[in-house]
Fold this protein.
Amino acid sequence: MLSCKKIYKSYNTTNMGSNTVIDNVDLTIQKGELIALKGPSGSGKTTLLNLISGLDNITSGEIIFENHNLTLMNNDELSYFRNKNIGIIFQFFNLLNDLTVIENISMPLLLRGVSRKTAYNKALELVKELDLVERENYKTSLLSGGESQKVAIARSLITEPRIILADEPTGNLDAENTEKIIKLLINSCKAFNSSLLIVSHDENIIKHFNTVYKLDSGKLSS
Ligand SMILES: Nc1ncnc2c1ncn2[C@@H]1O[C@H](COP(=O)(O)OP(=O)(O)OP(=O)(O)O)[C@@H](O)[C@H]1O
Ligand SMILES: [Mg+2]
């Protein structure tokens, strides 16, 4: 379904020349496939997710999602493509902090032109599932790290995306919530027949996955 072919990413840093962060990565993700990705801090995990979602541009190589070549899309096409196909759980949440929990979770559906009522009802189901009912009308700036993480997870699930890219989605949660969230993510992917690429260092998460890849200095291995 998604294939990355010989992708490279390097950043030009003013005083040190260019720095290769993703180094000749080949990665194929099948429909419904569940993959964990681990690797030391700075190895390029977040960068790889940003490249796959088209939030950052590759230096060379190709990323193909079904018959669409992401490398050839302009920013408007990429935004549309992301909203239609990808759910992203950012490492640092990227919530809209002037908006409430329900508004944040509903946003991807509102952007698709779904009515406010339909979007809020669907958001409410996720709010219940994630035990956020008491926070539903709070602005997200007032939430704890773990609560913010749950909102980011709910926002990624609301569109029933074809692929979920999750960047350490339980880094702020306790063991009980971690187990709950990982089950919700895996069960949701199975229900939607979606793929999941999840970045984590936590063995309690990694044990749920048959396919585990490792990034080390931008090189991917299994
Ligand atoms: N915009 C940028 N400009 C220059 N260098 C960057 C940029 N973004 C990331 N890097 C560098 O790329 C490398 C990989 O960063 P990345 O955030 O992908 O690591 P990571 O594996 O997600 O780490 P962590 O586990 O700490 O989240 C780092 O050395 C970082 O400094
Ligand atoms: Mg990261």
In short: The chain has a mean pLDDT of 95. Helices lie at 45-52, 75-85, 101-111, 116-129, 145-157, 175-192, 203-206. Residues 2-221 form a domain with the Rossmann fold fold (CATH 3.40.50.300). The first strand starts at residue 2 and ends at 13.
